[in-house]
Amino acid sequence: MTYVDGFVVAVPKDKVEAYKALARRAGAVWKEHGALAFVECLADDVPYGERTSFPRAVQATEDETVAFSWIVYASRADRDAINAKVMSDPRLQADMAEMPFDGKRMIFGGFQPFVEL
Fold this sequence. Notes:
Blueprint: E1 3-12, H1 16-32, E2 37-42, H2 54-57, E3 64-73, H3 76-87, H4 93-97, E4 107-111
Antiparallel strand pairs: 1-3, 1-4, 2-3
InterPro entries: Dimeric_a/b-barrel, DUF1428
Protein name: RNA signal recognition particle 4.5S RNA
Pfam family, one: DUF1428
């Protein structure tokens, strides 16, 4: 079975194009280093829930939208090795310093799939 990293962030609406550009660059680097898939999505049908929701989870404001992303790896060991390479890749160093979203509100984690169809 594969291994998946998942992410949810609030992106200011006036920085969506910068976020898309960053995602394209980052995706190319992750894939080059061995990720099997790199997917970035912007909210389309994501209501603000009364108790829980994607917008609530990242404290999205009216001037922000939610991005939901995931990266697929062959295994947890591959994920750890690939992420080490990506984090030291000089092509992303400037991007890491000036992210087009508030990284403090990012939700992220690694997941072991148990169903893959």
